[in-house]
Design brief:
homodimer, alpha+beta, 2 domains, two-stranded antiparallel ribbon, Creatine Kinase, Chain A, domain 2, 12 helices
Chain lengths: 347, 347
């Protein structure tokens, strides 16, 4: 379905504000009008939705540039692999429902059938690019609505299994890298500001996950009582403010703590290039420091794309998928170190 | 007196067992027969000894290949510099007595006047080489005895200020590097064995000092009731046993924990080559790991001599002497990092 040695186009290091904003994501939650959803959906209902969505994707040509898998192919390992690539949610991986999953070949568009709702559709883009992500999501969304019909009430909007998604059913989010604000200890203040305008801040893998490598996900809290445009604008504008704060923090670092930053960045790159044993967590933290070094121009010999790619490939299931074998944790740490060394080899 | 950018010949990485034994040292404690010593020595007595010893060194030609300095030149900074080079003792640096110091240009022979005794004479050699060190010390010792006359009682031997040095007045010691025994947790057992045959184990800078970088000093405890030959043999034989244990530990590491050892060694070298801020303590620990890597053949591109040299030059007073300026601690850490990077530059 996906090439294990390539990562999504949304990680290619292009697009606006790429030094701070890794990626943009728009996610839509939808349910079919004539099929029970949430806890009322029986297995037969679930299977109907999988079939219906697959049919639309086929008809609309989406399967020409992507693949669709169902429960049988969604093994635990495969689920972990997709989770590490931000293409499915933890709930989807653990779900006991009949599931289906579409992922476009470039990984910018994906659709979970029977996660919490019938349909969870997401579009990803590189850098800060809400309009592009929204457009891609909306295009598939309209086709599905035309062909299948959504549960919708004029006074609320789209109906969802959980009321927190009611209305637009939309979550617009950005994955931001904020080492400057963390190092200058301003991160709390800036994130509180985002929360005060109705946004939510989470770690790298969503709710409750660690903020490893100083990566944060920022998204809208409310889905009801606001238009799609309002949500996209709020998230975009607040992200721009966060980006500005991060740039100021980085300027401060470069002006007042240049040697300390260089020390951290060069040590991190040196460890990545020399370690013989490397855990996933250490790799992510070191790569995050290198990413900062590239953004600051301290490191000129590497591209953000290479670092982004490794940030995905060092994770356990992606590493094993790429190497084509199941490994014990200690073997993984050695093979991970070798992969990173080979990729970051001195020019 | 000494070139700040060169270190002693006894650190040139030559000689027997150099992978484990950094250096050999023989130290003799002596007092003049006709001058009060210890707490009875008045300033006039102290000055007499300084003058007398200097005269002998001059007459015997030692000043042609070395220098003699007295109190005025022995500033606190200079004392620290010499201490870091293992050429004087902490007590000598702090002493309130009228002092004199001879150091040969290659730093293999040195003599403190009015440390605890009138004369503290030491000979250093590279690797495990008791006969060479003893011979060099004994040669100067005989000349001093002939010209000045020592306090000596046939039933005891040489008289010293502190009874722990009575008899031969000799301390024979080796500086050993035992990372293998530390990593395999056998160090306690092996060092207990050395203590049980009458030896003493100390840290890098003598009594009470830290065992930084897994360096240990092993020397004889008793000086009375044993001949010089017996002492030299005991220390040499026990050192050979320690060396054997260390080699076995290293074999074990290479066979069973090769990747872990390589990881430690390559990470250490990479950090030394990339850090922009480096404390003296971190530098010593990382250099010690690299020294192990060179001894094991894991690192082939560096010589032990280069590592030995840096182990001295990274220390605060030596660093400042070499750079020719007094620096604040944070400036030292940056300049130290630069010196280490430049010295260990990738081939």
């Amino acid at each position: 379905m996906l090439a294990a040695d390539r990562v999504g186009r949304w990680l290619d290091g292009s697009g606006p504000e790429i030094g701070v904003v890794v990626s943009t994501r728009v996610r839509l939650a939808r349910n079919l009008d004539d099929v029970p959803f949430g806890i009322k959906a029986r297995p037969a209902d679930q299977a109907r939705v999988v079939g219906a969505v697959r049919w639309v994707l086929q008809e609309a040509g989406y399967l020409d540039s992507g693949g669709f898998v169902d429960d049988e192919q969604l093994t635990e390992e495969r689920g972990g692999f997709l989770l590490e690539r931000h293409l499915v949610s933890p709930d989807f991986v653990k779900s006991g429902l009949k599931r289906g999953l579409y992922v476009s070949r470039d990984e910018t568009l994906s659709l979970m059938v029977n996660e919490e709702d019938h349909i969870r559709l997401q579009a990803l883009d590189s850098g800060l690019n809400m309009p592009a992500a929204y457009e891609a999501a909306a295009k598939l969304d309209e086709r599905l609505e035309d062909d299948l019909g959504y549960a919708y009430l004029p006074e609320y909007g789209y109906l969802t299994a959980c009321p927190t998604n009611l209305g637009t059913g939309m979550r617009a989010s950005v994955l931001v890298h904020l080492p400057g604000l963390v190092l200058t200890r301003e991160i709390e203040k800036v994130l509180r500001g985002a929360v005060s305008v109705g946004l939510v801040v989470r770690g790298l893998y969503g709710e409750g996950s660690e903020t490893r490598g100083n990566f944060f996900q920022v998204s809208n809290q409310r889905t009801l009582g606001l238009s799609e445009t309002e949500i996209l604008e709020t998230v975009t504008n607040t992200t721009r403010q966060i980006v500005e704060h991060e740039h100021k923090a980085r300027e401060y670092l470069v002006e007042h703590l240049r040697v300390e930053v260089e020390d951290k960045v060069f040590r991190s790159l040196a460890l990545l290039r020399s370690a013989r044993i490397l855990s996933s967590g250490e790799a992510i933290n070191l790569l995050a420091n290198v990413r900062l070094g590239v953004a600051l121009g301290v490191i000129n010999e590497l591209k953000t794309e290479v670092v982004n790619r490794l940030l995905v490939l060092v994770r356990p299931e992606n590493l094993q998928a790429m190497l084509g074998e199941r490994l014990k944790p200690e073997e993984r740490d050695e093979r991970r170190a070798a992969l990173v060394r080979d990729t970051l080899v001195q020019p």
